[in-house]
Specification:
By secondary structure, this protein is of the alpha/beta class. The protein contains 18 helices and 18 strands. The chain has helices at residues 24-37, 51-56, 92-95, 113-128, 150-157, 205-212, 221-226, 237-242, 279-290, 313-325, 338-350, 363-372, 388-395, 405-410, 416-420, 434-449, 451-463, 469-491; strands spanning 7-12, 41-48, 61-66, 74-81, 84-90, 139-143, 164-168, 176-177, 198-199, 202-204, 215-218, 247-249, 300-307, 329-336, 355-359, 375-378, 398-402, 427-429. A 9-stranded mixed sheet has the order 3-4-5-2-1-6-7-11-12, with helices on both faces. Strands 15-14-13-16-17-18 form a 6-stranded parallel sheet, sandwiched between helices. Strand 1 (7-12), helix 1 (24-37) and strand 2 form a beta-alpha-beta unit. Helix 9 (279-290) packs across helix 12. It is globular and about 65 Å long. It binds adenosine-5'-diphosphate. Adenosine-5'-diphosphate (ADP) is lined by residues 23-24, 27, 304-306, 333-335, 361-363, 366, 385-388.
């Protein structure tokens, strides 16, 4: 129990698990509210009312109506779904479309994405400004570029408003649009400035969020440092450095109820750190399902990933002959770049007993891989936090990861010194090249030979605290510090 006053936070995101998910942002937006409740924070989550969100809100109440919002009428719906106190922006002209939240059936961004997510930010600003009776809001937590204009709307409203925390889940997605959209987005001319929304002559949603939020977090301390460098800053490093101590890193957690090997209905056999032998059933089940030779004695690598260059999937493709030369196997689940999908499918033809690839999105198989693979490969070129290595730790799949971002913050390399003092939870390699990845695969194969040492790695990994309690306490402390400094400002 907390002795501090309860706090009402509005979380604004474009996806939340399990309602709509394309990546880690959804996991965070879906799991953080419950963890914050334990820290005395009440979170309402504002999402666009995509068809899946609309369907989940079976007993929705209408809290507000906008006669026009970015080209059509809109309603604010409220209800409970998936354990979230949900607010849904029901604007059929923007969100009533099938499929991916960001991409049309042609695989390209929806052409009106600026207005779609501008509307989300505008509606959030109206809530934050107290315009909707019954919705108290002490602080706003905006996620990624899709909510990036929110602090801009608050700033240019010219009236007192709650503090805003912006969390960057991936700096690569910046929401850049043409300057001509300023008026359609309902922003004043004054906003087209260096300290406003202007970004390379256009409008930058994420840039605006970074410039105008009270505090910016990203999802790991190492990534917070990397994005302040020219190499990792993706053109925003100068601004991020300029924000100084208003930028910090808070590691993501994992939803340890969704990801719990002791009670996971999606896997063949439940287990925990004391009953690791039961993982064998999951390994055979995985090999069998995927058409790999079912052999306990063969080192089985798993991958659950978007198939992109960010994730180093091109390097993995190039390293496959070496992996197969080690007599190892690979079970890969992923979707993304068509050329990578083709490359991996081609590899299956070359190594049918050793390489299995499933393209698409499959929650059950993702759990099956974590429970059945011996090691999980994450060779990302950059990785803000990464959730799959956290699930791997929890499931006793030894993570083999690139030394970058959150991967570097969550996996302890099992080098000789670490092993001698019974430390180490995985293999950490750098630089992120094909050669270093091959070396990491070779190291993994060597470690695998010593099954007692391997079980030590698994057990230490499974004992790692990957839950949300600690990160949620950090967010709650940040929220409180921001509110306290607002109060202090008002007194002076
Ligand atoms: P990112 O958000 O950059 O894609 P993260 O590691 O932070 O990467 O989060 C990815 C999340 O999506 C994890 O929960 C992972 O299990 C899941 N995931 C990724 N690809 C797939 C897939 N093809 N099928 C099922 N789950 C997937």
């Amino acid at each position: 129990m907390t002795r501090e006053a309860p706090m009402d936070v509005l979380s604004v995101a474009s996806e939340a698990f399990p309602l709509v998910k394309t990546g880690g942002l959804a996991d965070v937006a879906g799991a953080l509210p419950a963890a914050l409740a334990a820290a005395g924070v009440r979170v309402r989550t504002l999402l666009p009312a995509y068809p899946a969100v609309r369907e989940a809100l079976t007993d929705a109440r209408v809290l507000h109506r906008w006669p026009t919002l970015m080209g059509g009428s809109a309603r604010l719906l409220a209800g409970e779904a998936a354990g979230l106190e949900l607010l849904a922006l029901d604007a059929p002209h923007l969100y009533d479309r099938p499929g991916n939240p960001y991409l049309g059936p042609d695989g390209k961004d929806w052409p009106d994405n600026a207005l779609r997510f501008g509307a989300l930010a505008r509606a959030a600003a109206d809530i934050a400004l107290g315009g909707i009776p019954g919705l108290r809001c002490d602080l706003v937590h905006a996620h990624d570029w899709q909510a990036g204009l929110l602090p801009a709307y608050l700033h240019y409203a010219g009236q007192p408003h709650p503090p805003v925390v912006l969390t960057i889940h991936n700096l690569a997605f910046q929401g850049r649009f043409e300057a001509s959209l300023l008026a359609p987005l309902g922003l004043p001319k004054a906003a087209m400035a260096m300290d406003g929304v202007e970004y390379f002559g256009g409008i930058g949603f994420l840039k605006a969020g970074i410039a105008l939020s009270d505090h910016v977090t990203t999802v790991s301390p190492t990534y917070a440092a990397e994005i302040r460098t020219p190499e990792g800053g993706m053109s925003l490093d100068g601004l991020l450095r300029h924000r100084g101590v208003a930028v910090s890193g808070i590691l993501n957690g994992l939803d340890t109820q969704v990801w719990n090997p002791a009670q996971d209905a999606l896997i063949a056999a439940a287990y925990d750190a004391r009953r690791l032998a039961a993982r064998r059933t999951n390994k055979i089940a995985l090999q069998t399902r995927l058409g790999l030779t079912p052999e306990l004695g063969t080192l089985l690598f798993g991958v659950v990933s978007r198939l992109t260059e960010q994730k180093g999937m091109d390097l993995l493709l190039a390293a496959l002959p070496d992996l197969c030369a080690q007599d190892a196997q690979l079970a890969l689940l992923g979707s993304g770049d068509a050329s990578l999908e083709r490359g991996f499918t081609e590899a299956v033809r070359r190594y049918p007993a050793q390489v299995a690839v499933v393209t698409g999105y499959d929650e059950t198989l993702a759990h099956g891989i974590q429970a059945g693979a011996d090691a999980l490969l994450v060779p990302s070129r950059f990785e803000p936090c990464g959730l799959t290595q956290l699930a791997a730790l929890r499931y006793g799949a030894v993570p083999v990861v690139a030394r970058t971002g959150g991967l570097a913050d969550t996996v302890v390399d099992a080098n000789e010194m670490a092993l001698a003092s019974k430390q180490g939870t995985g293999i950490v390699f750098s630089p992120v090249t094909r050669a270093a990845l091959v070396h990491a695969i070779d190291r993994t194969a060597a470690l695998w030979q010593d099954q007692a040492a391997w079980r030590g790695l698994q057990r230490r990994g499974m004992a790692t605290d990957v839950g949300w309690a600690r990160p949620a306490a950090r967010y709650a402390a940040l929220y409180r510090a921001l509110l306290d400094s607002r109060r202090a400002d008002r007194r002076t």
